[in-house]
Amino acid sequence: GGGGGGGGYGYQRSLPQPHQQRNQGQRVRGRGDDQPGSPDAHAGTTKRARIDGAGPDDRAASAASGRRPKKPKKVFLYGNYSRYYGYRTPLNIHQDPRLCALKPEWLDGKRVLDIGCNAGDFSIAVAMRFKPAFLMGVDIDATLIKRAQRNLEVHAMAARFDFPASMVMCHGSLPLTLLDNSVGDGADSGVQPPAFPRNVRFATENFVESDTCPLEEYDVIMCLSVTKWIHLNWGDDGIRRLFSKIHKALKPGGLLLLEPQLWPSYRKRQNLTPEIRKHYRSITIRPETFEQYLLEDVHFTSCERIRVDAKSASSKGFHRPFFKFVK
C-alpha cells in the first residue's frame, strides 16, 4: 500500500495506537500485492509477524518423532514483500513492461516521488533509464529502504566501473559518498542536475500518516500497486488522504502515475486482521471508481489510461490498469 513523501522526507512517524498494538512483532511495507506462488503480494515498523508456527509442544513432539518443526509463516500487512520484484520481474527489473509504457518527456529532468518503493528496483530502473533531475523513493518499511540503498550502491558501482553485478554482490559495494563526492540534490539549483546515482534518494516514511505534505514540489508522483494496502489498513479515509496529499504535492501540470489493484484482490486479504476486515466491509470508494473520484473530488484535470503490454507480465495477478492523471 503501501506500499508509502518525499523531497527531504527522512523522518518516520509511528502508526496510531490501534496499529501499534496490532503490529507488535509484525513487518510492514509500502509497495506490493499478490505474488503468485507466495503469500499475498505504494506507507512503520519492520518486524515480521509469525503466525501458525509451531509452539513448544509441537516442537517437542516434532523432535521426538524426528520431524522438523514447521517453519513459521510470515504475514505482510502492508504488502511489504521482501521478494516482490523477484515475483513481478523474475529475470531483470529493466524488463518490467511498465517501463516501456512511460514516456521520456514525462520524467527527463523532472522531480519524481515514488510512494511505496519497496526495495527500490523500479525507482532505480526509472532513474537510470529516464534521467530525472531528482527521484525520491519512500516506503513504510525501514528494512526495505535499507535494501533499496544497498541496491542503489550496487547499481552505482556497476555503472561507474563496468563491474559485473555478481562481483559487486560477492565483494560488496562502495558507499555512494566514496563513488562521487558531489552527492546532492541540484534539481532546482539552476545548475546541471546530478546524474545517476546522485539523483536518487530513499527514505522511510508513512506517506498517508505523515503530518507534513510538500506543496507543489514534484513534477511526477508514482503510486504503483499501493492503493489496496492503504485501503485495507486505513479505509476510505486513508485513500482520501493519499489522493489529497498527492494532489497538493504536485506542481501545476504535474502527473500522477497510478496503478491500482483491482477489487477482487482485496477479498483475498480481508481477514488478515479484525481491523482490516472492518475496513474492507466499510469501503465505498472502490478501485473502479478511482478515476471518477480523482477527477470530480480531487480535481485532477484529465485522465489517460496507459497501455501496458500485459503479455510481458510474469503473472495474470500483475495485469492491472495503469493511469496518468494531470493536475
Folded structure, characterized:
The protein is α/β, with parallel strands linked by helices and 327 residues long. Helices cover 35% and strands 14% of the residues. Strands 5-4-3-6-7-9-8 form a 7-stranded mixed β-sheet, sandwiched between helices. A two-stranded antiparallel ribbon has the order 1-2. Strand 6 (218-224), helix 10 (227-249) and strand 7 (250-259) form a beta-alpha-beta unit.
Structure keywords:
7-stranded mixed sheet; 327 residues; 9 strands; alpha/beta; globular; two-stranded antiparallel sheet; 35% helix; disordered N terminus
Strand order of the largest sheet: 5-4-3-6-7-9-8
Q: Give the averaged pLDDT, no decimals.
A: 76
* Beta-strand percent range: 5-15%
Q: What fraction, in percent, of the residue positions are helical?
A: 25-40%
Calculate the terminal CA-CA distance, rounded to whole Å: 22 Å
User: Which structural class matches the secondary elements?
Assistant: alpha/beta
CA gyration radius, whole angstroms: 20 Å
Element string (H = helix, E = strand): HEHEHHHEHEHHHEEHEHHHEE
Instruction: Give the beta-strand count.
Output: 9
By DSSP (H or I, 4+ residues per run), the number of helices equals: 13
The biggest beta sheet reads: 7 strands, mixed
Low-confidence stretches: 1-54, 86-90, 181-187
Shape: globular
